[in-house]
Design a protein that fits this description.
The structure is a single chain. By secondary structure, the chain is mostly helical. It has one domain. It contains three helices and two strands. The longest helix has 43 residues. The radius of gyration is 27 Å and the shape is rod-shaped.
Length: 106
């Protein structure tokens, strides 16, 4: 067993069977088998997964913004200041609207 620290990809391609990646930020060590090709394949798959997850996050964020806007528009459509109340049904109406906004944000 030999431990070599290098950025020389040609050397890595010729010599290695296992690559260990040390991630300082995450404080992890990840083992990649099948040498340099295995490392590149695994990293490309990880990038694709990250891109997919990020796209799903952005879609969820846009949907949440739409729901919050819709709840705000419904509140504005009442034509009344929500602080003035709605008579005897004020608390239940406010709870319903705030619940809709809260649900849209989660």
């Amino acid at each position: 067993t030999v431990v070599a620290i290098t950025h020389d990809r040609a050397f890595l391609e010729r010599v290695t069977s296992v690559i260990l990646e040390v991630d300082r930020d995450l404080r992890t060590v990840t083992r990649y088998g099948d040498g340099w090709d295995g490392y590149r394949t695994a990293k490309a798959a990880a990038r694709r997964r990250w891109a997919q997850e990020h796209q799903e996050y952005l879609s969820d964020l846009a949907r949440t913004a739409e729901l919050v806007d819709a709840a705000g528009q419904r509140l504005a459509a009442t034509g009344r200041d929500p602080k003035q109340g709605f008579g005897k049904h004020r608390r239940s109406h406010e709870a319903k609207l705030s619940g809709q906004v809260r649900a849209a944000r989660t």
